[in-house]
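Standup notes, structure subgroup. Blocker cleared on the farnesyl diphosphate input:
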Amino acid sequence: MSPPADPRTPRHVAIVMDGNGRWARRRGQPRSFGHRAGQKAVREAVEFCLRRKIESLTLFAFSSENWKRPDEEVGALMELFLRALDKEVEELHSNEVRVHFVGGLSVFNEALRTRMHAAMEKTGGNRALDLNVCVNYGGRWDIAQAARKVAQAVQRGELPAESIDETSLAPFLCLAEQPAVDLLIRTGGEHRISNFLLWQIAYAELYFTDVLWPDVDQDELARALDNFAQRERRFGNAGAQIARAS
Ligand code: FPP
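Run returned:
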């Protein structure tokens, strides 16, 4: 993979795809209609990232809290994921996209789990774009599962407890092998993180748009990247230090 030469282009973009329900309601349709329309916007986002040579795209498709939604909506979403896996994986593979499903996968039914693992295996050698689809995911869950793994390493005698720090915990978090998130986009007008990637967005630039996810197209994503290009990223340094280094 050849990374973007321009440091003003994010290497890793993460998206909270919000607004499917409202998009459907405005059309007098059930929420599942909005989720289906959202799938088209997912395709747009993947194409956009491939064109812009972004290395990683991480999508919040189903949070650990989304199980609280009505059974009918959860069922429709599961059906959509199943059909999307059958329909989209070939195309993603032909575009050299490596697909990862990130989250507690064991809770999904066997048909879904089988397809998720098959998609990850099939596309595992691809290098054009890492597409991370977060399902049954929560940022706190992620930190807790990393803490559990590091505790197990301590129990096995591989690591003294006193040496646990950010560097020793980091490899156990989801997406550890990918660049840190540079840009987090949330559509649909809300200004919150909703337990998405907590650790991984420590220094991400945040971009909020009122556009509802099914209406997001390449122009809207280009606006987010243009906005990102104008940000001064300081990573804790003073502005003057950044100016001297550039
Ligand atoms: C949030 O909108 C959206 C979701 C919980 C589901 C996201 C799923 C998709 C975009 C479907 C396609 C995804 C893949 C990976 C195939 P909301 O329902 O909370 O909308 P609202 O805030 O308007 O109610």
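Discussed briefly. The radius of gyration is 19 Å.
Next: hand off to the docking folks.
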